[in-house]
Amino acid sequence: MRRLSLSLLCLAAGAACAQTDPSVKVNGIGFLPDAHKLAVVPAGVPTSAGARFEVVEDAGGKPVLAGALAAPQRWDPSGETVRIADFSALRKPGRYRIKAEGAPPSAPFTVGADSYRALGTAALKAFYFNRTALALAPKHAGAWARPAGHPDERVLVHASAASSARPAGTVIASSKGWYDAGDYNKYIPSSAISTYTLLAAYEHFPRWFDALEANIPESGNGVPDVVDEAMWNLEWMLSMQDPADGGVYHKLTNLTFDAMVMPHQAMKAPRYVVAKSTSAALNFAATMAVASRVLAPYQKQYPGMAARMLAAAERAWEWAAAHPALLFKNPPDVVTGEYGDARVDDERAWAAAELYISTGKDGYYTALQPETVSNTYPAWDDVRGLAWVSLAHHRARLTPLADRGLIAARVDGLAARLAQEWKSSGYRVPMRGADFVWGSNAVMLNQALMLVQGHRLNGKPEYLAAAQSALDYVLGRNAFGRSFVTGFGVHPPLHPHHRPSQGDTVAAPVPGWVVGGPQPFQQDKAECPPYPSALPALSWLDHVCSYASNEVAINWNAPLVYLTAALSELTPQANAMTHTTTPLDAVRRQEQLLQFDSFSNKAALDIGLELVERARARKAVVSVEIARNGQTLFAHGMDGAPPDHAHWIRRKSNLVNRTGHSSYYTHLEVVQNGGDYEAIPTFDAREYAAHGGAFPVVVKGTGQVGTITVSGLPGPEDHALVVGVLKDYLAIKGEL
């Protein structure tokens, strides 16, 4: 992401300059069986209306599916005219290729039930490979083992960061953290969005990450590896807060960039913490507020850390309030990455949202000024979208002050716009030509992240399909027909601008990194061989010189971690061989159908009374509670109901509010995966109960707004009682 003076030629470095690819373009990793599946057929194929494609088995070439190509369409970012092949009907697991007359066949790809586990694991482990202050042992790092780099136990306070308590030259400790990108410095703005994205991925998809082991030193300690990895950076971020006033230093860096050598060979120059900034304080406050709630269940492994983080977040917020426009600029003697930001209203909104969610204090929601905050896909210098992501996820537990309609409108509005771009794009991606900026692949992935929020809110399948297309692009359905992720897919990058990959003795680069991707400004063209094109989608070099198109960065990799989890968890998972309906499928269908156009107090009363009446008719004794946005609208315990019904209701409804699924769905899912529903990892049994009876109240276009919970019967019967009443109340026909 920063400039490095290199004057190497393509062939001298042993790299091949990027060329466009005439073959059928497809995601070269593969697809989940029920995923939306598209390929791009380039210009040169027959242009007749009846042109067709076929899917063939990779071994033997047996055709398994055929279909008509879509009409030709120009994609201006690459200057191509292309046609789309939709093969979503292919669900049978296997290894395949796409063929179309007039074009070489596609790269092979697989269809399988766990297509993104290895990719998601590698994308997360890339952060481990960029850790500072830690020797990477062979048992964890394999061929990429290396000595520790930059312990940062004796860092100097730069003159720009000096205070009476810490004058210039003061030595402080600021260890741990991740190297930001291809260089060896550490920056709060990029660290904040990266760490947040990992923590949000865990908040949104805990089951995926509970089962994901990345073979890092902390694996097996009872904490998901994604949380442990985030903690390595969070502890560094905490050290960047000045204990005297709560302000946060903007970055920890050399005065200049290191040479293209290994970390332990680049530790001669002194390191500095450089100037405090409003941006750094607000980024820090937001990230620590999120971390405080994610770390709360792990007091044994990280004692007192959650409370410390929340206190640090509120101190940073107070400092930023006292210094509302202290913008960062590199001091004259510092030439490393600036991460300067001309405005901080987006950071302020994000920090206010996270502190509101984590503390429940309405003052933070007021400070957010939500009606003035629009929504867009996130980047390190525009984080307002993260506020809406978190508010939408936690909407069921917000205070009554929160405008849930506005939250839903912001999330769905952006997702709808991105989905429309996807539909109208020749390559069927959500990006426009103007979106091909520095780190364009991260733009694509973060657009997908926001599409996922829309899908999580209202279940619209086109939002998930557009998110799938974004991943497809990064994995090979692009103008080059190549993967942009090291070590994965067809012809992945071999020469990323990444010092550890360049400085070691291993031919292959560190795996799991997504490179920046094409963008037309070519800021490094004076040091690099000629780019193949100035067109936005063709301006890329697989060359170590190309910091403008082929560098890696933590804030670009984090949305790849998120998206692999999201697609794996949200894509329907019907049996790919027979499509028979399982109990889990049936409950998923119930959740999709039993949704409301609106949910009033009277609706809660009518449903609650009907639940009680049906229980009485079967001579059962139950307790019922119906809540909306944290407010109890109906509560009744029938004669003879024991007091512990209240505890069961609380624990079951807590589970629904955390997962977004009925408590019986989670029960079935855990059992189906061979787990113990009484001891789900990371779910405190005192607070959560995976027994049937709690059902989400979902308002179409808004998302979950509450819960309906029954206790007193066996779990499946509690669930069936709720479903039966809702089916009749909503006039749903047919079997559920």
Number of helices: 20
- Percent strand equals 5-15%
Biggest β-sheet: strands ordered side by side in the sheet: 1-8-7-3-4
Q: What's the helical proportion of residues? A: 25-40%
Task: Report the C-alpha radius of gyration, rounded.
Answer: 26 Å
Inertia-based shape: globular
Low-confidence segments, ≥5 residues, pLDDT <50?
A: 1-18, 574-581
Number of strands: 17
Q: What structural category characterises the helix and strand content?
A: alpha+beta
Global mean pLDDT: 93
CATH topology-level fold name of the domain at 1-115 and 403-571: Immunoglobulin-like
Give the name of the CATH architecture of the domain at 1-115 and 403-571.
Answer: Sandwich
Distance between the termini: 53 Å
Under CATH at level 1, the class of the domain at 1-115 and 403-571 stands as Mainly Beta
Short description:
The chain has 736 residues and is of the alpha+beta class.
Describe this structure in words.
This protein is an alpha+beta fold and 736 residues long. Among the domains are: 1-115 and 403-571, Sandwich (Immunoglobulin-like); 583-729, Beta-Lactamase (2-Layer Sandwich), CATH 3.30.450.150. The chain is built from 20 helices and 17 strands. It has helices spanning 117-129, 138-141, 188-204, 206-210, 225-239, 278-295, 305-322, 345-359, 362-368, 384-393, 404-424, 440-458, 461-474, 499-503, 554-570, 583-593, 601-617, 644-659, 663-672, 715-729; strands at 30-31, 38-41, 52-57, 63-68, 73-75, 80-86, 94-100, 109-111, 155-157, 171-172, 186-187, 249-253, 272-276, 623-628, 631-637, 694-699, 703-711. Strands 1-8-7-3-4 form a 5-stranded mixed sheet, with no helix packed on it. Strands 10-9-13-12-11 form a 5-stranded mixed sheet. Strands 15-14-17-16 form a 4-stranded antiparallel sheet. A hairpin with a 3-residue loop joins strand 16 and strand 17. Helix 5 runs antiparallel to helix 6, helix 6 runs parallel beside helix 8 and helix 12 (440-458) runs parallel beside helix 15. It starts with 29 loop residues before the first strand and ends in a 7-residue tail after the last helix. The model is unreliable at 1-18 and 574-581 (pLDDT under 50).
